[in-house]
Every structure is written in structure tokens, then in C-alpha cells.
């Protein structure tokens, strides 16, 4: 399987528990202009062995993370990997 994937952030919760984080750093993080939607390229495969299903998937952003399209240092893009294991009850 391969193709585009579109995601949109509906809710975000930020919790700061690090004792060395300052109030200024927390405000800068909360006010950062991060993109709420992502467009990425996703790919993966599933293997069916009788009743067992094994799968692996990965995806990478194709856009910058800033909402206005600008970039900052470090320039990062989201990436994720997923492994699945399943049991199928039917043939």
C-alpha cells in the first residue's frame, strides 16, 4: 500500500513537567506557529499467514511544520512508523 495521507489536529494538550523549563520557554512553545494539518506520503504492507496478520507502515511529511510555510532551525518534519499484529477469526 502506498499513497498520500492527510491529517488535521483537532485537539492539543501541552504538559510541562521538566523543572528546568522556564516560563519564557513555555510561552514560546505555546505561541509557536505550528501547522495544524499535515500532508504526508505513507506506505506499508500486510502479510497474512492463515489467521495471523502482520503489518508495517511508515509515513513522512512533505510540508514544513510552520503554519506560514517558513522554516526554522532545526528543520524537522514529522515521521512515524507502525507495526501491527492481528488475529483473524474468519477465512
Could you characterize what this model shows?
- 9% of the residues lie in helices and 43% in strands.
- With 91 residues, the chain is mainly beta.
- Strands 1-2-3-4 form a 4-stranded antiparallel β-sheet, with no helix packed on it.
- The chain is elongated.
- The two termini are 22 Å apart.
- The mean pLDDT is 79.
Question: Mind sketching the topology for me?
Answer:
Blueprint: E1 2-8, H1 23-30, E2 37-49, E3 52-61, E4 79-87
Antiparallel strand pairs: 1-2, 2-3, 3-4
Question: Which descriptors would you attach to this protein?
Answer:
single chain, about 90 residues, mainly beta, four-stranded antiparallel beta sheet, 4 strands
Weakly predicted, low-confidence segments: none
Distance between the termini: 22 Å
Number of helices: 1
Radius of gyration equals 18 Å
For the biggest β-sheet, the strand order reads 1-2-3-4
Helix amount, in percent?
Answer: under 10%
What's the β-strand tally? 4
Strand content: 35-45%
Order of helices and strands: EHEEE
Give the biggest beta sheet.
4 strands, antiparallel
Helix/strand class: mainly beta
The pLDDT mean sits at: 79
Dominant shape: elongated
Quick rundown:
The protein is mainly beta and 91 residues long. The protein has one helix at residues 23-30; strands spanning 2-8, 37-49, 52-61, 79-87.
